[in-house]
Amino acid sequence: MKTNQYKLALITGASSGIGTAYAEKLAANNINLVLTARSTDKLEELSQKLEAEYAIKAYVISQDLSDPGAAKQLYENCQKQKLHVDLLINNAGFGYQGFFEKSELAFYTNMLNLNITALTELTYLFGKDMLDNGLGAVQNIASVAGVQPIPYFSVYAASKSYVIDFSLALWREWKDRGVLVSVMCPGPVETRFFEVSGANPREMMLRKLQTPEDVAEIGWKAILKKKPEVFSSRSLSLTAGFATKLPAKWVASVINATMKPKANL
Ligand SMILES: NC(=O)c1ccc[n+]([C@@H]2O[C@H](COP(=O)([O-])OP(=O)(O)OC[C@H]3O[C@@H](n4cnc5c(N)ncnc54)[C@H](OP(=O)(O)O)[C@@H]3O)[C@@H](O)[C@H]2O)c1
Q1: The pTM is what?
Q2: pLDDT (tens digit, 9 = 90+) per residue, 89-101?
Q3: What gap in Å lies between CA 249 and CA 257, rounded to an integer?
Q4: Mutation to probe ligand 1, out of 189, 210, 218 (largest number of atoms < 8 A from CB)
Q5: Tell me: the pLDDT tens digits for 162-193?
Q6: Angstrom distances, CA of residue 22 to CA of 53, 164, 213, 219
Q7: Atom of ligand 1 nearest to the CA of 110
Q8: Under CATH, which number does the domain 8-258 receive?
Q9: Pocket around ligand 1 at a 6 A CB cut-off
Q10: Are 130 and 86 in contact (CB under 8 A)?
Q11: What single DSSP character describes residue 48?
């Protein structure tokens, strides 16, 4: 296992679930942190806990990353405080399960702003500094949902498909320039995600959920090993590999037949 070379990580969506687990994992590896999300109180609490437990600094910057221009504001705020980020974990995101036309349009706009635009802008802004220094890493949190079209999760799944393709393309562009771009694709994880998205893991036939700590552990190991793509379990990686070999139209039809939500028929 390679040793850690990073000094300051910015984690988006650090106030709960997978983001909080990454914060714990990186703090335990002596990496200082910039914690960001909208819930200032939760971030402050996490920062105090991590600073008490580990010999690190954990800075809090609250930001709604679905606001246009928010990524730039966050970057400029870091610049002003001389916080030189060399590890970026683009984790903030949310989904929605249901009939496409039944949600407000603004809801999708916010989702795309957060899941795609903010992630891309943060990668651009912090990534350029990393390239200048010839050192850094970005890990984008996608989802296994991004490997195929998913009816009733259409916008979310497509947003994560973007994250996978964008990350792998940039991995190759930056591979020989000292900056790692990597993508983590979790399967179902026990977080607020299901509550926020309105999805019911039992209706989706998901029996066993992974813990956010599992995801952070595997994601961190992938960064150390400089892996471009990682799934949160071996079986998930095999299933995803199989799904990508099938015709997308066929996969969409099978999912349509088996996963139509009952709640908002
Ligand atoms: N849980 C799963 O089954 C699963 C599976 C695959 C992929 N993922 C992905 O994993 C990532 C983390 O999700 P999670 O499962 O840990 O869910 P979560 O517990 O709901 O965490 C989502 C995080 O994103 C932040 N966030 C939401 N909207 C935001 C906004 N407008 N601006 C800034 N931050 C915002 C939330 O903080 P605030 O509310 O404080 O802003 C929270 O910290 C997401 O990208 C998700 O798509 C999750």
Answers
A1: 0.96
A2: 999 999 999 999 9
A3: 12
A4: 189
A5: 999 999 999 999 999 999 999 999 999 999 99
A6: 15, 19, 7, 8
A7: 31
A8: 3.40.50.720
A9: 13-19, 37-39, 64-66, 91-95, 114, 141, 143, 186, 188-189, 191-193, 196, 212
A10: yes
A11: H
- State whether the Cα torsion 179-22-120-37 is positive or negative: negative
CA geometry: angle at 36 spanning 31 and 38, to 5°? Answer: 160
Amino acid (1-letter code) at residue 131: L
Helix axes 119-133, 70-80, angle to 10 degrees: 40
Give catalytic residue positions.
156
Domain extent listing, the chain: 8-258
- Closest to 118 (Cα-Cα) out of 160, 64, 79, 156: 64
For residue 196, give the ligand 1 atom closest to its CA.
Answer: 20
- Looking from the CA of residue 43, the nearest atom of ligand 1 is 40
The residues near 113 (Cβ < 8 Å, ≥ 6 apart) are 65, 66, 67, 68
State the average pLDDT over residues 136-151.
97
